[in-house]
Amino acid sequence: MRDTCSWIKEIAVGAWARIAVPIPDALALSAAPLQSRTHGDSSIMTDQAPEMRDGMRDLSGGEDQPESGAATPPHLSTMPIALRGVAAGALALALLLLIGLAVDHWPFAWDRAILTGVRTHARSEALRKAAVDFTALGSVPVLILMVGGATMLLLARGWWLTAIATAASGISGGAVVTLVKHIVSRARPDLVPHWVDVHNASFPSGHAAGSAMVYLTLAALATQATQHRRLRLVIVLLAVLLVGAIGASRIYLGVHWPSDVAAGWCFGTLWALGWWWATAAARASWHGARA
């Protein structure tokens, strides 16, 4: 019995030695990080800093923010779904115009029908004044003011790439429209009296093309200020309605064939969104460029 008790005692002592001896070492190991943090161990903070910066970069969208305080605009490379729909509509309309040109000649039969029908059945002094007001929103001075103002705001925010693209889009688009007018040299409609003065060729409508280029570009920029899908849709819808009203006013005033306006819408829309995609590609290739 005594031998059995001695044997149990020896087993208990051995087990306690195995458990108790590592405790001081474990406590020392667990206390070391606490002491280093308490005493401000700079080596640990230095080792952790890259990981912390990487984590913050992931949370902020994957890119370092410019040090000068000019934050990169969020999601500028992403085309809003509503604008993609507008681009698809412009492509479809351009295709219809090409098909019409292949089977008919200018002016199209529907050009004459729409122009005379609008003037005959929708003749109103109030509508005429409204058309004059809307057409002024697509005039060269107003569009230059819009592009200039947007460019200055973008530069002030530090988004120089988008600012340059916005200005270049408007200037180059206007030059292309002027060139096409000289090449095509299509005469203005003579079916109805003109209610405003015009002095250049008819095709394409400069008001329709310019307003599509400028106001859709501004709408695309405005959609970057919010992530709310419905608000983005409303912004694009308002821009489309404005561009549509400006183009329709040119028909109502009798200074453009409907096909002139349709061609202007197509060109202006595709030109603006083409510049948007080109700017997004440039931003992606330069990585650190302020947008």
Outline the structure in words.
The protein has 291 residues and is mainly alpha-helical. It contains 11 helices and no strands. Helix 4 crosses helix 11. The longest helix has 29 residues, at 258-286. The model is unreliable at 18-77 (pLDDT under 50).
**Low-confidence runs (pLDDT<50, min 5 residues)?**
18-77
The structural class is mainly alpha
Radius of gyration: 34 Å
The count of β-strands is: 0
SSE ordering: HHHHHHHHHHH
Tally of helical runs: 11
Distance between the termini: 88 Å
For the biggest sheet, the summary is: none
Residues in helix, %? over 70%
Beta-strand residue fraction: under 5%
Mean pLDDT: 76
3D shape: globular
Summarize the structure.
With 291 residues, the protein is an all-alpha fold. It has helices spanning 2-20, 22-38, 42-59, 81-103, 109-121, 125-136, 140-157, 160-184, 206-222, 229-252, 258-286.
Blueprint of the fold:
Blueprint (H helix, E strand, L loop, with lengths): L1 H19 L1 H17 L3 H18 L21 H23 L5 H13 L3 H12 L3 H18 L2 H25 L21 H17 L6 H24 L5 H29 L5
Helix pairs in contact: 4-10, 4-11, 6-10, 7-8, 7-9, 8-9, 8-11, 9-10, 9-11, 10-11
Features:
291 residues; 0% strand; mainly alpha; single chain
